[in-house]
Each structure stands twice: as structure tokens, then as C-alpha cells.
Amino acid sequence: MHHFATCIALSALALGALPTAGRSQAPVHAPLPACADPVAAAASRTPVSCHGYAAVDSLRMYYELRGAGQPLVLLHGGGSTIETTFGGVIDALAQTHRIIAIELQAAGHTNDLAGRPLTFERDADDVAGVLDVLHIASADVFGFSNGANTAMRLAMRHPARVRRIVFASGFTQAAGLDAHLFAGLRQATPESMPAALRSAYLSTAPDPSALPVLVAKSAQRVLNFVDWADSVVARVSVPTLVMGGDRDVMSVEHLAHVARTLPHGELVIFPHADHGAYIGEATAQLQCPACPAAAVKFIDAFLEPSH
After folding, report:
1. What is the CATH number of the domain that holds 49?
2. Is 138 helix (H, G, I), strand (E, B) or coil?
């Protein structure tokens, strides 16, 4: 039976005040120590905090392990890193979940592969590869923006690996995106990249000189996107929480359509929130100090085993 629930997350009164313009200020986390035994750390019932690299094909994929509890995979947005996407919520999520935050091909600490385009399908397979390395049979998956699309593809291609999905500011059809986004991507350069993302890449990438390649590959991924048929999306049978802002780069109508198409979709829309503002993402132009804590509450409630 199809299940669809919807919620306008918070009123301005509940938040205490309207958000203000300006870039979100997420915490800056110190580098984590290396995991002495990554498999043991991933399975530990006590909180952990360490990083490692997983050999997946020819990639050396960076990941961070934090907290304890039901495994929760975090997948960042395009051109981003763990810190720039999830810095505002990762500590709170680690209070109740075993976080496995992964940096995908050409992002952050993870290397790129010459001649290999960035695709959601390959990213999904790479994530499954990291889970194999860490001996994690299945997990909840929270993806933001491009990471949301990767989470959905992971559920399509490796359904046994996914328990529940948080699909935050993702899309399944190009028509759901703001037309201005495509105009910007066609002219994308390293100089036009948001400063927070450019700085994060240059300070973490194995080869910082490859920034122009990342920008070109990231733009082409979206510009060449082929719509996912509703019939394909409808085969994702795991419970999925669709999240977004009312001023996001994808329309509220599109996010609602995705939630309705999924057999077990739920929808949360944050008012006065642009792309990522509700989780404190580093490039968000609207500040909403109360939103990340509220988003974590929605996510925690959705991911509870009894939900």
C-alpha cells in the first residue's frame, strides 16, 4: 500500500525569527585520527571518531567514522566535502547513529580517475564498495543534493544494502530544477565555484591542481542527466524521507512529486530555506540557526527502528 505523509517543517514563529541573509556558519571540525582497525571501529558498540581510506577499484576513498548505533551513511553534495555539507549536523547525528561519512570520486580527500565521468550510478557502486571494505551489510543512507541522488541509486542497484533513505534536496527529473542552475553550470569555472567549496577542495584534494577537471565533470553530470522514470523511482521500496527548502534549487512541487511516487515516501519542507540552509550547509545563503537541530529531530524520528 502506498504511504505518503507530508509536513511543513516549522513556522517562523516556531523558529523564533525569520532566517537572515548570509552564508551559513557550520562548525569547523579538527582532523580525525586514523582508524587503527577500521572494521572493528565500524562494528564497535561504543562511540568512535576516526578516519580511513577504502580501496575501491582504483579509488582511494576517504571516510570518517563517528558515534555509535545503527549505521548511517552520509553522502555529500556535488563539489563538496563531508565538512562543507554536514558540518552543521554531523555531531548531533553521531549522538544516536554510527556515522559512515564518505567522500566520493574527486571530492575532498578522495582521488579522481582520469577518463572516468562522475555519475550517480558509479558513485552508488563505490559506496557499496566502501561498505564491503568495512563489513557493513546494510545501513540507513542520508544524501544531500547530488548525494541524495546517489543514495537513491544505491537503493536501486544494491537494495539489500539500504534500510532507509533521507533524500535531501535531490531530484529525479531535470524539469524539477531551477532553469538558472543549468545556465550557471554551462558557464561554470573554478572562479565561479562557491568560495567555501573551492577552499575546501584546495585544502583537502590529493591533487589541488585538478580543480578545473572537478568543475567540468560536476557540471557535465547535471547537464547530461537523463530523467529517471516514475516507474523506476516507484521500485524503491524502502521508507524514504524527502527533505528540502521552500527556496531550494528544485521546486517544492518536484520534491512532493518524488515523495508521492515512492511507495513509502514522506515529505518535510523547511520554510524560508534555500539549498542546504536547513542542515547548515556551508554555501547556503539563508541563515536559519534553529533549522539544523530541527532537521536532526525529523531525521532521528524517521530512522528510529519503531518508526
Report:
1. 3.40.50.1820
2. coil
